[in-house]
Structures are given as structure tokens and as C-alpha cells.
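Lab notebook, page 48
Experiment: co-folding of the full assembly
Goal: obtain a model of how the components sit together before planning crosslinking
Operator: M.T.
Materials (sequences as entered):
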Amino acid sequence: MTIARATTARREHVHRRATSRDRLIAFLMLLPSLAAIAIFVYGFIAYTGYISLTNYTTSRPDLTFVGFDNYAQLFNQRRFQENVRNLIVFTAFFLVTCLLFGLFLALLVDSRVKGESIFRSIYLFPMAVSFIVTGVAWRWLFTPGDLEPTGLNLLFERMGLDILKARWIADARVWPNIEVPGLKVRLWVPLAMIPVVAAAVWQMSGFCMAMYLAGLRGIPEEIKEAARVDGCSELQVLRHITLPLLRPITLSAIIVLTHISLKTFDLIMTMTGGGPGNKTEVPSLYMYELRFSQFNTAGAAAVATILLLMVSVLIVPYLLYNRRAQSVER
Amino acid sequence: MKKGQKLTRRQALKWMGLSAAGAALAACATPPATAPVAPAESKPADQPKPSGGKLEIFSWWTNGGEADGLNAMFEVFRAKNPGVDIVNATVAGGAGTNAKAVLQTRLAGGQPPDSWQVHAGRETLSYVNAGQLEPLTEFFTEQGFDKVMPQFLLDQLKINGEIWTVPVNIHRSNVLWYNPKVLEQAGIEPKFPTLDSLWAALEKLKAAGNVTPIAVGGKDKFEASHTFESILLATFGVEDYVKLWDGTDTMWNDPRAAEALGNLKKLFSYANSDRSALGWADAMTQVLEGKAAMTIMGDWAHGLGISKGLKVNVDYGWTPAPGSDAFMWLSDSFGLAKGAPNPAQAKAWLEVCGSREGQDAFNPKKGSIPARTDPDLTKYDDYLKAAIADFSSKPLVPSAAHGAGTTNAYQAKFHNTLEVFSSDLDEKAALDSLKEAAADNNK
Amino acid sequence: MARALLYCVMIALAFAFVLPVYLLVITSLKDFSEVSLNRMWDLPTRFSLESFNRAWNGGQGTTGMRGSFLNSIIVVIPATVISCLLGSMNGYVLSKWKFRGSETLFTLLLFGMFIPYQSILVPLVAVLSSVGLYGTLPGLMLTHIVYGIPITTLIFRNYYASVPQELVEAGQIDGAGFFRIYREIMLPLSAPGFVVVAIWQFTSIWNEFLFGLIITNDPRLRPVTVALQNMSGSQFTQWNVQMAGALIVALPTLVVYIFLGRYFLRGLLAGSLKG
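Observation: model returned without errors.
Model output:
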């Protein structure tokens, strides 16, 4: 108690002494980054937002203000509704699978196995490889074949695992195919999205593993030991001790994975191109087509703006939570 | 802006200096070389020749025969315009979208290349509308191109009464490629003058059950629409087919439009079910390997056959796509950028593009035929000779999937509509979106 | 028994992880005539490194990636170093020199991570050409550095958050100013943070495609990912050469992960991504 008070007192004292010069320097050091982000992020967002409200829908620049016409058109399109559904499905599946699978890998690697570092490297290496590189291999793996199986189906057949055969990225079905009044798309899961998620999880689960592994190693063994002495089973230790302590890591992983997921482009472009029938197309792909094939600059800008708004909806709560946590810490 | 102007002026001054020096040198030092055998065209003698300076050519020919062909054309250019530094700005990948992305970004950012590749015909419309191209009608007359290219082609090149690009080649889009052994085994003669003859053959193949009757791709986005344009031609006939692309939905309201979609649906019922996962090259490979009997694809599929070490008319055969023996063409061409940093060099480049020498250097390597009617036939293989013969004798119709008859904006929607149709087979939805998209063929 | 099961699961997973790369490798060793979906699992009939030769040196219409490899190195190394320094400085300020509104500024910086790059290409080219950096490697470098600011700042800020404020205060009591505290207290503690950020930036810049594609128009300045894409034809792609190229492109990042993977983990362990 006294020590704490003394520390606080000293802190007050030092803070008063901290020269305003140093504070100014600190701010000045931040300034180049702030300026760069102001231009390259906020300037460009403002530009994009502005274009999205104009009639710049052909190759000829036409900056007539048209209000929210472009947005209304987008939301009315079956294709864009599909895009949004696909992105939500992709992000949800990718996040959950990646976190769970990453945690699973971390628990495996953490269980004092021989050759731990080899396993760890194998699980981690996909992160180092670009999707431009592996997208094609994934497409081949998940091409089902017709009269004769190809890819994974062929492999399964040779291994006698016919039960695992599926139509993968050629499967245009949506499950459970719910019709919603007012929407032009059926909800929820386009089956062709599952292989795409698998490829994405392949690439990023190693990263989650590494983060969880770091977290696991950071939990003092004594706490777990104490719980075991109190009669907790391993599962209970995991549930009541380990997982709660890993929560901050999960939150960090979520922010990293979400930004990867929302920007996913290369993977889907090389693996499915958005097919079959737009079932794996996400807004970033459509935006690319609108801007560079249809020459609909304003439409593309509207998609970008909507994407950013979606990001905000997901990220702002996290950022607020983070800020509150920080201030509590202080 | 100011900076750009200054740069061009500086470059212009530099160029003037260099060309003056070059001219002086040429005048006193070079002995009059034996003139090469003059082609049919007459060249104005006072045309200034750039020597030195830069030339930036933008294309998506990065690899294989097309890159070799482009380089061969560069060689022709270099021989005529020594000292020009050619920047070969090529962009591949993403089924052409990457190239378009780069080009659009550069045009919007005020950094155009001197000359860029574009499909001849209606695809140039968006650049014309945006004021990004210089008209070339006069240039065509000057160079005599108007006398050596078929009239129909010149008509198709005209937009708002002017010609905007110089075509370097012609590809044929409506070709059916087949595996001769497979068809022979099934007792099918590889001639399909009507759609019914195709259905009969496909039915036979399906009943035999050991191969995919017709392989169709989808991964590259244009395979379904590519197949569809041949079906449209068969269903509408030459005259009405052309009217489909006039920028109105008149022809799409014709009952034959729905009939054509029905025909495509029927064709798909004989096709592989994993269409969306295959590229057209995968589909063609299945034909080459005898896993599938046939596929409808442009004549670049011939290039794939060659690069797999196979022989046309032996290992694989071809015939016009079912229902019409018209020649559905598409063409790669180059234009002159408005505000091109190096206009003199760019014009010299376009001269090479349209010349007999340039086209005969490019096309045999690329696997296409010249847009001129006077090629050196000895340079072309059997398939290409046959294509050259057909090009000058059959009715000619523009390809929709490859920009001869359609704008970029329209193509994107056309491809997507048919790609969706390939998986959900919903005729009404497809027809509606085709009608809705029709107006985009004016953008 | 449970142990055996554990190893079985881990080995099976390891095989699954390596599968796509196995496919890349066997395809790259084939002749183009052998490349087809139906024969994708078959081993090449004869062993040949010709694809690698063509991918690297070029030939038969293919442009080799040799030159582009150097371009990528020229861009990646300075961009990574500068990213690390900037991120570390920003993290230092935002964790140890908080001022009124600094949390808000941090949040605003962080938001930059989420901008979809496909939408900002046109203004990007306009801005870069207005400062004369369009079409140059420094322009590409600058772009990577700027868009790297959010994540590098995030990592360093969270990392420095675990450094006790008391250390900074002790420094201040000793009369150290902003820079001396950074140099003498923070930097010596920063190695794990630098490793994580450096690896992250190195791999993401090395693998980045879109900026490289748009910003460098001269083929002599292209980064390696663009050169890799350019090995695909406009009509068909010789997958054996493409896959060989893909493996070459992946090599540096793989080396980084295999040899520095341990430090990467140690950096994460040191808390740089917690919080």
C-alpha cells in the first residue's frame, strides 16, 4: 500500500518534470507517419467516397453528383448481395476455423513431442508462401473431375476413401438455401466456399498456432499445477485456466485475421475466379471487375466504401474495447 | 501537368537534335542501301523517321509464341528505326484483367503508354469515348493500309466515322476442336453443319459413356460466353447475329434469344460438370488426351496443341463450330495514345504493325493470321493456311466474347451472365440480364 | 497409446500441410506435354530441371526472373528496415509518451490496415506521379512503407506496452531525454519486436503483387511476383515453368521462416502481439 502510494507520488513528480520539449519531440516523431496515413489512407478514402457519389460510371470522367444512386443499384443487384453473403461466410468460417485449428496445433506442438521444431516449421511455413504461388495448386486439388476424378478426389479414390469425395469448387449449391423476402440471394453457405476457406486456413493457421504457442508458454506452470492438485482434469484446466488466459491473444489474432479475410483477393482470383456462378466472389473481386473491366469507377468506389463500412462495424468495437482495456490497465 | 509539358518539350528538342544528326549522317555516310522489295503499299517519301528516343508499347503478350511474335515485330521496328529504346511493358495474368487494371490506372493517372494493345472493333469504343486515342483514318490512307485490308474489317474498325487502331492479326473464334480417334471410334464424322448434327453426335458419345462428349471450361470466365457466341451464330444466322451487338435489346427480345440459351443448356447437358473449375486449356487438354471428344474454342487452342508436341489433323482435328461456317473473327490491334510521350516513335511503330513485313514476322509465331490480304503463305502452317483461305472466302462476323463486337463493359457482364448460367442454368435470369446489359455496348 | 495417436495426428497433419507444395514440386519437374489435371499425381517420366532453368534464365519466349529477383531485394530490404524503424518509433511514442488524443490517433492509424487496396490505385498513381515517384522502385518502396505503418506500429506498441513505464521514468530521473531513453532503454529490449516485424514485413512485401504490378511499368523494374505472373501466357500457361518460378519466388521467404522461425516465435512470446 505504502509502496504503491510512493510509486504514484514519484510518477507524478517525474511527469511534472518531463520537459514539454520531449513531449513535442514525441509528437513530431509521430508526425511523418500521421501525415502519410492522412494522405494515403484518409485522403484516398475521402476521394473514393466522393467518387462513389458521382456519375463516373463509364470510361469518361463525369463528376456529376448523383447521391446514393450507385449504392442503391449495388444493393439491388443479386450479384452484390451474393458478394456480401460470401464475404460474411468466408470471414466467419475462416476466423473460427483458423483460431480453433491454430489452437489445436499449438496444443499438439506444446505437448512435449519429439521433433517439435520440425512440426512447428511445417505448420508455419505456408505463411511464407504467397497465394499467387499456391492458389493454382489448391485449384487443382479441389477440381473434382467428372467422368474420372481428379485432384483430391483421385487421391481419395486411390486410398479407398471414396466417402470423402465431393464436388468441391465446382459445387454451386447453397446450404441451407434459405429464402428471405426482399433479398435476391439464398442464405447461407455456398458450398464452393468451403475449399476456399480450407486453403486460407492452410495458410494462416500456422500463424495462429505460433501466437497461441507463445501464449501457452507464457502461462506459468504453477497455476496449472495448482489446479491439478485441486482435482481439475486436463480438460478442466484447459477450459478454466488456459483458455481464459489466452483471450488477449485471441483478440489480437482476430484483428490480424479479419484484415486478411476482408482483403482476400489473390487466393480467390487464382483458385476459383469467383465461380461457380459468383458463389465464391467477394466484394474485392467485384470491385476490381467494376473498375477495370466494366469501367464503372463510381460503382467500384461504392463497393470500396461499403467494404470499409463493414470493416468499421467489425473493428471499431474491438478498438474501443482495446482502448478501455488499456485505460483500465493504467 | 507543367512538369509533363516540360518533359515533352525537352524530349522533343532532344529528338530533333538526334534526328537532325541522324539525317546528316545518313546523308553523307550511308550508301543508298538496296531497297527491300517494295510491298504493295506506297509510302510517302517525306515521312520523318525517328532515330533515338523512347517508345513504350503496352500489351499482355508476355510469354510463349505471342512474346516471340512481339519481339519479332520489335526487330522489324529496330531495323527501320535504329536507336529507339523500346520499353516492352507487358502485363499478364488474371485473364487479362491485370493488364486492363494497369492500363486504366495509368490512363486515369495521366501516364499513358505510347501505344497499347486492344481488341480491334467495338472494344476500342470506351477509349474513344474517353478521348484517350488519336484517330488514325488519315494514317491508314497515308500508309495504304486501307487498300490491303478487307473492307468489312475497315468498316468494323470505324467508330464515330474514324479508324482508331491498327490490327496486327486475326484469330478465329468459332472452331470446334476434336479428338479424331475418339470420334472415329464412336463412328462420328467430324462435320457439324447444323446444331442437330451436333446433338446426334453428342448423344452417341454420351451413350458410349467412356469420354466426356464435349469439354467446357469456366475458370477463365469467358469459356461459357465463348461457347455461347457460336451457338448464337448458329441460332440467329449471320445477318441477325451481327444485330445482337448494336447496343439495343431488340434482338434479345427475339424468341431466338431464348432458343439459343436453350441450345446452350442442352450443350451443357453433354458437358463435364466441373466446368467452373477448369480453364479452357484444361478442357482442350482433355480433348488432346482423349478424355473428352471435343471442345469449342478459338484457334489459340491450336497453339496449345503445338506446345504439347502434337500435330494438327493427326493428333487433333478442327472444323467450324456447329451450325455455321461463317468466320467469327477477333483481332489484336494497337492505337496511338492521345498525349503519347513519343508520338513520332509511336507512329513508326504503328507503321510496322500494319506492314506486311511486321505482320508476317508476328503472326506465324503467335499462331494467328495477318489482317492483311497479302501474306507470305510460305510462313504459315497447315491450319493457318486454311484459316487464311476461310478469312478471305467466308462470311465474316465479329466475336462478342473477345471484343470485336462488344465493349469492355458489355463483355464483363456478358461473361458473368453466362458463367452464372453455366452453373444455375436459369434461362429467364440469363435472358433478363443480357437484355439489361445490352445498352452497355454503347459505353 | 495416447502418445502414438498424438504422433499419428501430427504426422498426418504435416503431410496435409506439405501436399500443395508437393504438387508444385512434381509439376515443376515435368515436361509441359505431361502437365494435365488427370495426371497431376503422376511422377514425371524423366527428371529434368529445364523448367527451373527457363523460369530463372528465360528462353523459348519466357522472360526469366533473374532481373526481377534483384528488384525485389532492392525494394524489400530497405522497406523492411525503414518499416521496422518507423514502427518502433511510433510504438515507442504511442506507448510511452501518451498524450491527450494519442489513443485516438493510434486507432486512426490502425484503421489503415483495412483499406482495400484495389480501390485506391488511381489516387495512388496520381500522388506518386505528382512527386515524380511513379514507375520507380523508390515509389514502390514508399508505398509498402506507408501501408506497413499500421501493422508495424501495432506490433511495436503492444510490445513496448509490456516494458514497465518505471524504466522510462527511471531514465527521466537520470536526466535522459526522448532519444536517449529510446536508444539506451527501449532499443536494447526491442530485438524480439524487430524480428517479428521484420519477418512480417519481409514476407508480405516480398509476396505482394498488386502494388508491384501497378507502380512499376518498366519490365526492367518489376518485382518478382509480377515477373512470375508474367510467365503465364495471355492464352495458356506452361504450368511446369510457372510452378518452377513459384518455387523460386517462395525460396527467400521460406529460408527466412526456416532459419528465423524460432526467433519469430520468441518474438511473439516476448509479447509483441498480445494485448
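Interpretation: The mean pLDDT of chain A is 88.
Next step: discuss with group before ordering constructs.
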